[in-house]
């Protein structure tokens, strides 16, 4: 302990990132994309419509949306050589590792077209990443289950295509399930942006060095993979399954959390900003019942999740720490009901977050506002001292 305090160093608040994209009020549990409340967008808009809103600032006209959709459909194919990339990785590779490394590898095909200072390159790479990342994500899933990759079908919508690439196979035609399409579209919209969370801050910091969109997005995927961030949706399902399999019951698990046994946390609870119910979690919880019923799935893990929430929200330990369900608490139960393996859940978070990352990357580079980022440090180490004379 050096006896110095922050004030001795004249500590000032780190300059905040300035943005016009997303507004969060953590106390009131408010989330708006470019001013539109998240529930209105989740209920009424399409994923690409919200992507355009985040990136360009206004809802697209019908022509703008049609043009955006058409351009993306025309860019879904990966270079054939890139498909060989996947065979170099072990089938045990975590799909998030596959996604982040394949995204970096994707950049090698466009190095002459990725100048961050060239607006044409920036716009083309927004299309390329939106078009190709869902294909790479589906290939990461297929690789993890040893199934052949499908080619995209450009006659399908963005989410239909993504579902077919994940669940279709070479042996039979894939039947689109409108319930799954609408449910996944809503979930992806809920994930599209969330102001300066850890992975988006990573994307902006990498962007501030002059690195291209591929490098920044790949870095964002790595940041998202951590269990305290996007990896939480996978960790929640493991936690619910452990409670079910242990037979110890929910109350006993909550006691272990409160005793902070070996770092046991209530995954899917708590948030750096929301000190109230995460508005996204509310929407996901509502649709969980609808989607599981519509898919004819009865999953005891959903009941365990609801019991956990009920006990935690009534308990002083969680109340005093403002711990509420966040976006990750219920999403995994729905993804599981759709048929996604748990290790793919965070990949779905990344596909949802991609438009926000692209919007924030673009804002970081608008009009050369991109001064290189350098988070401030509060030095608490040793004052000057002399090397001992020999
Ligand atoms: C996402 O930032 C974003 O916007 C992220 C995100 C997005 O859209 O990008 O919203 C997505 O990452 C959601 C969060 C997903 N992560 C989890 O669900 C993992 C579990 N949650 C925690 O690890 C934690 O709540 C964080 C990381 C989310 C937030 O951490 P904070 O705000 O730094 O809170 P903290 O660690 O300082 O905890 C304050 C207190 C501590 O207790 P005390 O030391 O005061 O006794 O609350 C406790 C913590 O131990 N606590 C928990 C807890 N979260 C905090 N105790 C049990 N279970 C938890 N989940």
TrEMBL record:
Instruction: Spell out the reaction equation it catalyses.
Output: oxaloacetate + acetyl-CoA + H2O = citrate + CoA + H(+)
SUPFAM superfamilies for the chain = Citrate synthase
- Please give the superkingdom of this protein's source: Bacteria
The UniProt entry, under Pfam families, shows: Citrate_synt
Molecular function terms from GO:
citrate synthase activity
Which keywords does this Swiss-Prot/TrEMBL entry list? Acyltransferase, Transferase, Tricarboxylic acid cycle
Give, as in the UniProt entry, the pathway in which the protein acts. Answer: Carbohydrate metabolism; tricarboxylic acid cycle; isocitrate from oxaloacetate: step 1/2
User: Which InterPro entries does the annotation name?
Assistant: Citrate_synth-like_lrg_a-sub (IPR016142), Citrate_synth-like_sm_a-sub (IPR016143), Citrate_synthase (IPR002020), Citrate_synthase_AS (IPR019810), Citrate_synthase_bac-typ (IPR024176), Citrate_synthase_sf (IPR036969), Citrate_synthase_typ-I (IPR010953)
Family recorded in the similarity comment: Belongs to the citrate synthase family.
Name by which UniProt lists this protein = Citrate synthase
Organismal lineage: Bacteria, Bacillati, Actinomycetota, Actinomycetes, Micrococcales
């Amino acid at each position: 302990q050096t006896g110095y305090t922050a004030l001795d160093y004249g500590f000032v608040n780190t300059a905040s990132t300035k943005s016009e994209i997303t507004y969060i009020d953590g106390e009131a549990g408010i989330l708006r994309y470019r001013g539109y409340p998240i529930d209105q967008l989740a209920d009424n808009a399409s994923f690409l419509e919200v992507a355009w809103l985040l990136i360009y600032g206004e809802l697209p006209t019908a022509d703008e949306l049609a043009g955006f959709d058409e351009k993306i459909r025309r860019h879904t194919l990966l270079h054939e050589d890139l498909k060989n990339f996947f065979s170099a990785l072990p089938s045990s590779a975590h799909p998030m590792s596959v996604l982040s490394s394949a995204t970096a590898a994707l950049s090698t095909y466009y190095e002459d077209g990725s100048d961050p200072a060239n607006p044409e390159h920036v716009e083309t790479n927004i299309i390329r990443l939106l078009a190709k990342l869902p294909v790479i994500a589906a290939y990461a899933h297929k690789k993890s289950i040893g199934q052949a990759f499908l080619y995209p079908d450009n006659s399908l919508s963005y989410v239909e295509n993504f579902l077919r690439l994940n669940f279709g196979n070479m042996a039979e035609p894939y039947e689109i399930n409108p319930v799954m399409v609408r449910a996944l579209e809503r979930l992806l919209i809920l994930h599209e942006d969330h102001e300066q969370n850890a992975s988006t801050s990573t994307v902006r910091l990498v962007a501030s060095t002059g690195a291209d969109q591929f490098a920044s997005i790949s870095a964002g995927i790595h940041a998202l993979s951590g269990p305290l961030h996007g990896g939480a949706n996978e960790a929640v399902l493991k936690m619910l399954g452990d409670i079910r399999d242990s037979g110890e019951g929910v109350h006993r698990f909550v006691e272990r959390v409160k005793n902070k046994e070996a770092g046991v946390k209530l995954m899917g609870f708590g948030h750096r900003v929301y000190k109230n119910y995460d508005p996204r979690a509310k929407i996901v919880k509502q649709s969980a019942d609808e989607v599981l019923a519509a898919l004819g799935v009865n999953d005891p893990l959903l009941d365990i999740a609801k019991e956990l929430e009920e006990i935690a929200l009534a308990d002083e330990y969680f109340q005093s720490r403002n711990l509420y369900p966040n976006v990750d608490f219920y999403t995994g139960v729905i993804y599981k009901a759709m048929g996604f393996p748990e290790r793919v859940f965070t990949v779905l978070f990344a596909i949802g977050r991609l438009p926000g990352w692209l919007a924030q990357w673009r804002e970081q580079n608008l009009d050369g506002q991109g001064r290189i980022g350098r988070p401030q440090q509060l030095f608490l180490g040793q004052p000057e001292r002399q090397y001992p004379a020999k």
